[in-house]
Amino acid sequence: MSKRIIFLLILLMSLSLIGIISIQAYYINNSVQNEKERFRSIVKTALYYVSNTIETREEAEYVYKLQNIVLNGAAVDSAAIRSLNIIQEDSDSNETIVYSSGILEENYKLSSPLFDMGSDTINVKRIYNERQTKVYSNKESDLDLSSNDKLLVIEKMSTTDKILYEDLYKDMAERQPIHKRVSKATIKELLTRKLKEDSINIHFEFAIYSNDLATKIQSEAFENDKASTFSVPIFSSVNSGSPYKLLVNFPEDGKFILSTIIGMILLSIVFTLIIIMAYSGALYQLMKQRKISEIKTDFINNMTHEFKTPIATINLALDSIKNPKIINDKEKVIRYLNMIKEENKRMHAQVENVLRISKLEKNELNISKEPVELHDLIEDAMTHVQLIVEDRQGYINTHLDAESTTVLANETHFTNVIVNILDNAIKYSPEKPKIDVYTENVGTNIIIKIKDQGSGMSKAAVKRVFEKFYREHTGNIHNVKGHGLGLAYVKRIVDDHQGYITVESEKDKGSTFTVRLPLIS
Length: 521
Prior knowledge:
Helix content: 40-55%
Largest sheet: 5 strands, mixed
Strand order of the largest sheet: 10-12-13-15-14
Strand content: 15-25%
InterPro entries: HATPase_C_sf, HATPase_dom, His_kinase_dom, HisK_dim/P_dom, HisK_dim/P_sf, Sig_transdc_His_kin-like_C
Radius of gyration: 52 Å
Oligomer: single chain
Catalytic activity: ATP + protein L-histidine = ADP + protein N-phospho-L-histidine
Number of helices: 11
Order of helices and strands: HEEEEHHHEEEEHHHEHEEHEEHHEE
Shape: rod-shaped
Protein name: histidine kinase
Structural class: alpha+beta
Distance between the termini: 55 Å
Pfam families: HATPase_c (PF02518), HisKA (PF00512)
Transmembrane segments: 256-284
């Protein structure tokens, strides 16, 4: 897959992911705003309910008190009586209750000197109330009201009838201080009940303000924060608007609003995280597949170079043997046959490495272990590479200081481990190979260090040097032969022996491989 296609796929996937997250954020924000509006509407409705209920209660109280308002020493000039009959049917007791409220409108002519005015007399209208209650059985037929009476359903008094009371009782009520007109307990009880009906069961603070000034009616922790306080007028005046306002605020309204949509928010977050994880996983797999493709291509190129030289050598040897001048020279024929054999062994070793890694991946490699002396394995491994080192005029110095050296290991495989590390040290030494091998005991473990003074590795290569097929990228230069399987094999064998292997390296300053294995007594 080309870089251009990969870039396009990443771009499209990224834009889709950003779009999905943006839509989720917009939807959540809209939900929060809608919930705030719903909360505001419910609170406003509750406040108007409380305000109206308190005013209605006060009105009823003053209606019953009107009958006691009589001017002393005044004579009645004329009177007009109008009877309001409020009817309530009780289905449980099978009775009808009639509340009769007689509104007496009396006109008085008072002497002007009493008010220090120019006219002889002043007409004054006075209203007061007389009321009675009668209970009738629904079986009785004596429920008789005169044609001048007006029948009213309870709590549905007409505007005309209310006018008879309203002016007088409001004028009297306004003369009272606010704390005598309503109590804190009443406001709290009404507001709590109404809010609970609409499923708002959180703490609130309330107050009544008069012309933006605090009154005695307020809860202990109330603060008039205009941004978060709801208000409605209460106790409307006769001649003007109400100077009083009922205010309420909710210290925990944010938590309440969030709690109503927290389930939706959590689900959105969970699904968004799943999408992000899926996107990240797809992106990771895409990049991984691209790297694997590059590694396999590099592996094929390296394997081609690994087999190309032996095949060419074998072909040249065979052509030489076929030469009539050489075929009769027994010494040269044997020499060329040995070359063919060595090159064939070399190719066989490469194939074995590939098969060995494949078996390790499938856990099919049979690795039996037995107690061995690690120093003996090191000496044996050195003999495999000694001639190559000497041919390049280098050296391998040993510093075998460990006193306890018995480990549980597979002799063949662990010898290959050390050979592979030494072989790498030789390959990546541009000049003469200079290698030092150290051993020491640390606790119940034995430490092997193989240090070279070769070309070293970059930090990126150090992190990936034990990956299968990995080789540090050097362009199309194959001055160092290999296929990236040796150190992957080393890591798998060391892990199988319950050991650890690490590498420290610096570019142009060499590398140090450290193997730690547990000792056995």
